[in-house]
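Cross-posted from the bioinformatics board.
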Amino acid sequence: MTQANYLDGNAAAGALSEFFAVDITAAVGQCNGCGRTGVFAEARLYVDAPGLVARCAGCDGVLLRVVTTTNDTYLDLRGLTYLRISNSPG
Amino acid sequence: MWQVATVADVRRETETARTIVLDVPDWPGHLAGQHLDVRLTAEDGYRASRSYSIASAWSVSSSNTIELTVEQVPGGEVSPYLVEVLKAGDPLEIRGPVGGWFVWKPEQEGPVQLIGGGSGVVPLRAMLRAHADAGTTPVRLLYSVRRPESVIYVSDLKDLAASDDVDVRLVYTREAPAGEPRVGRIDADLIEQYVFKPEDGATTYVCGPTPFVETVADLLVAAGHDPARVRTERFG
């Protein structure tokens, strides 16, 4: 993964809006691999795979995957220990 | 949720970029810097979607109209259609507005530093427009383009730069217009000269191709800027 062909977690906002009522790209997440915490928008997003793959900017571990088939969309969150969203508006 | 917008107008910006004005029923409004997804469906059912920054600021008076500016990516699945084929009156499937990180709000405190490479200027233009409507803090735009013909929003940027609060500096990487001696990428000297100082407390927004964003973000951190105040958006 040395090639800089990734986007930001920002670009997954649309796909994730199908699952969550709030914007998850501004949430803070913890990588289950290395323990790094950061805003999801700053994760590295690979869109060349079948679906979207978000990787940790620290260890390159997979944080999240979204795959759409003809009938269904899958969300795989196993690479995240947690997601934290702010309770205050704005 | 996907919904169908109608193309109200199309406007050529450069040889490879064009602005698409969309009418979206019941548009909820958006923040400067947000984007939306566009989905195309082929006759055989094959679908491709891409994310595009919104180029316009939203206000009550702009109601249900938004603008996207799309740069054609050679061999792309979506952008050639948007730039070369789509015309006024056509329907277009969209999802959004989305994204809550790479955004600027008029009530945000402190100066605003915008740094764009190529069509990375699109969400920054939305921020400049929102600032023109309601902003009171100083704003600087450092905009890197290959050559004079590559500048998107030429006349618009000229108008915006007329404000005392707004400073626009163009950087040419391949070919500069007459009277501009500097040709080359953004470097530490330019950052030193044209970007707010770390102690100014600015929020910096960097948008462009991935290598551009990486380089600029590294230069900013090397110049003493707090990484937590630098927000980035890469588009591959």
